[in-house]
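input
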Amino acid sequence: MNIPLGVTYYPEHTDPANWDGDLARIRASGMSFVREMDISWTKVEPREGIYTFDWLDDYLARCQRHGLQVVLTTPSAAPPPWLVKAYPEVQAVQADGQPYPPGVRRQVSVVSPIFRHFACQIATVMAKRYGHHPAVIGVQVDNELHGIELPAEGELQEDHSREAVFRFREWLKARYGTVEALNQAWGTGYWGQEFGGWDDLGTPRQPRCSPGWFKDFYHFYSDMNAEFLGLLVAAVRPHLAPGRFITHNWTSILKKGFDLAGSSTPLDLISWDAYPFGGGYQTIAMKHDLMRSLKRAPFWVVETLAGEEASQAFLAETVA
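output
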């Protein structure tokens, strides 16, 4: 069986003088594909509405000369500082009411209409420019949708912003119809926590809230991510040449009720990041089975590494 191989490469972090040598070595190693741009928004839009694509035009032309096909990623997983500064309402909010600090990935709210606008806008601009490029065979929309990422503990967090609270209430109204039905489903009579009206409801902010409250919030948050993914696909698809695919790289983190199957509906191809977080080969095999089941079709592994993944603390010490 001939399995095509590829690699993720970061031209934005590499001296252009090294591109040709790197691409030649990638091709000589038997690779056919390179994947780009997943966390590079500031490199193509350093200021609002100001686009700098000359360097990427040059890089893609070199990929074509070296016989490498490109999977181009829309870069909304790493919002630029100018966006958060100009529109602070795009920030996700922690359970204590404080916005997540800038400086990491995924610190913004996928529920925010403003963030969705800018994420779809940069996706559209890139698709219009490169959707028919001869080297580009497909587009990955966003990167590792799974929640907000904190650098210290790497834990997945939720969004308690004003927009998230409003959308959660609307989601609950559609699900239950009445507050009385919600109280019955959640068993809020325990500890006398019945809700008297929709305005009493917010997002669950402390760990001893009703399990039903948490369960529905996780399902809601999954639906919001799926909705966001669908918007990105809709922004990109009209501008792609026939035969180009759209994918998204799911992670190996399976927790908090994320609906991978439902979220994958608009995608042409399933892909995921197979990092060995522990659990042995059985765990990786199970996740491979899960990814294949999402469309009952072959899938791609677009990120992995050899060996156990190091902690952020270890990486920081290594760099130091």
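quick obs: The chain has a mean pLDDT of 89.
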